[in-house]
Write a structure and sequence with these properties.
The protein is an alpha+beta fold. It contains 9 helices and 8 strands. A hairpin with a 2-residue loop joins strand 5 and strand 6.
Length: 246
Amino acid sequence: MAGHSKWANIKHRKGAQDKKRSKLFTKLIKEVAVATKEGGPDPDSNPRLRMAIKNARKSSVPKDKIEAAINKGSGADGSNYEEVNFEGYAPHGVAVYVEGLTDNNNRTVANVRAAFSKYGGSMGKSGSVGFMFERKGIFIFPSEGHDEDELTLELLDGGLEDIEQNDGNYVATCAFEDYGTLNAKLEEMKIDAESSLERIPTTTVDLGVEQAKSVLKLIDIIEDDDDVQNVFHNLEMTDEIIASLE
């Protein structure tokens, strides 16, 4: 897949989340809980949690909210959060992969299924579109002050697969399994990076602006659900489509 497509999809998703500021706190807090559930409550031994806490602090999430999320993720407060994934198609054959965190799976399934149905999509079985995405670690940081060749050589030791420059930033990509290693390497180099675990489409679907808007409407509705953490898709986010949304 073209580098432009990867960056455009990531940029659009992050931009959409930032616009929904009221929802962003909820998603950041839940990411802390997810990371805790996956790797334990100690950020020193859990790189995903360490980065989740860092991202939450950058967005001014209060310390007590972060601590409460760690307690939820570890079950210390009696909560029982469950990671859930849903797969399906938006209108015009666009693949959609939904990641969620819920304490009521029946509620979340019903809400996501209703969104697919109401906005012209269809929810499929597990595995129906997951094979169309590769799970990657993404790190974004300012390019100023870093020589790309020297930086690349350093980061290869941390599992770097690819690095590119966009909008004054470096976008570094690694395999899902190397997320913690590359995160540690960047910390060792004193590079302050924003990171996330993304599902990058291996192929994309080209649509016109009006068709794309119907796809993005469905995605917006699913993203608005409090139990949904991330929504990934393989719509080609062209400059024309992005411009129509601004």
